[in-house]
Amino acid sequence: MAKGLYKRVWDVPEIYRVRLPFSNLKKGSSNCYIVKSGSESLIVDTGAYSPEARDLFVGATDELGVDVKASKVFLTHMHFDHAEMAPHLLPAGARVYASAIGVKARTPEETERSQELFFRRMLANGATEDDARAYRACNAETAFIDQSLFDVRYVKEGDALSVGDASFRVIATPGHTADHLCLYEPNRGILFGGDAVLYTTTPSIDPLPGKLDAYAMFIETLERLRSLPLRCVLLGHGGASYHPLGERVDQIIEKKEHKLERVLEAVRGVPYCTGETAARLSLHRTMEAWRAFSPMQRYYAMLECFVSIQHLMAQGRIERTFDDNTKVYRHRAL
Q: In 3D, which of 80, 89, 106 has the Cα closest to residue 43?
């Protein structure tokens, strides 16, 4: 085995982890998993595209004797660090299993529409036009699966995906993204968890349109994953775990609740504040310190604050009104 190409993380079925590099807030890596059982193989997530990541993927599949075109490819969600390399690397006709929500949201037409809505949402939350454009650039996702080139098969809650004698069950796990899916093998207690739970960081939550409560969906997903009897947990980032998720779920919920209270505290402290002001104050930052953040850092802070506000509104703890004079939303605690 070429040093560092892959690591075996489970024996039956054989499961190998390939770490693929990407760059966002900082340089990191995401996990691609290769499952081998009998003459069949399954690839879970393909990572972000770069020449280095492509070479690592090709090197690992070649050395493991995996025929990518004959393999099933499962995408936990359509974030770039999990799915961007798929259209660059997979041969025409490759079978790709993914959520219909995620695939359809990444068409060029839908991406343009959603990016324009996102830009307007940022303006309505108090961002300047220049900042809103920068946040829109940060929000751009580049994973697009052309259904005319690949055999795309939509999967949903309860669907089965087999590889050799292993039968995985699809679990809908919205929260981190609306389209997030996990794969669970109940007989062996194996979970491919994507970014629904992470040990390396607290997963972000993508905001949903209208008054939909993404925070509540995320917590419901965590509680559901907590209940699974697990022996092998394989996530989108970091190493494998061989224990149930209860302790980590508790830690994530505690951090999310702490953030929620900080947002509520910010709105109480500055009644009728904008979303951007709430985001800044929830981090206890002066305006100068806020402006010193990179656009990507402010973008993530804005998203987290928006999701928190949506949840607090659903709980009846915050009221949001639209200011016709300034064309922004104003928030006050109830």
A: 89
Among 307, 3, 15, 4, CA closest to 176: 307
List, in sequence order, every residue forming a beta bridge with 43; answer none if it has no partner. 34, 73
The alpha carbon dihedral of 235, 241, 243, 246 has a sign of negative
From first to last of its 334 residues, the chain has per-residue pLDDT tens of 455 789 999 999 999 999 999 988 788 999 999 999 999 999 999 999 999 999 999 999 999 999 999 999 999 999 999 999 999 999 999 999 999 999 999 999 999 999 999 999 999 999 999 999 999 999 998 799 999 999 999 999 999 999 999 999 999 999 999 999 999 999 999 999 999 999 999 999 999 887 889 999 999 999 999 999 999 999 999 999 999 999 999 999 999 999 999 999 999 999 999 999 999 999 999 999 999 999 999 999 999 999 999 999 999 999 999 999 999 999 999 9
> Residue 229 corresponds to which tokens in the numbers above?
């009897």
Q: How many CA atoms lie within 13 A of 51 on its CB side?
A: 0
Give the number of residues written for the chain.
Answer: 334
For the chain, give every residue range classified as CATH 3.60.15.10.
7-106+141-244
What are the percentages of helix, strand and coil residues in the chain, rounded to 5?
40, 25, 35
Cα separation, 297 vs 130, whole angstroms: 15
Q: Are 115 and 139 in contact (CB under 8 A)?
A: yes
Beta pairing class for 27-37 and 40-44: antiparallel
CATH 3.60.15.10 fits 7-106+141-244, yes or no: yes
Element housing 9 (H / E): strand 7-10
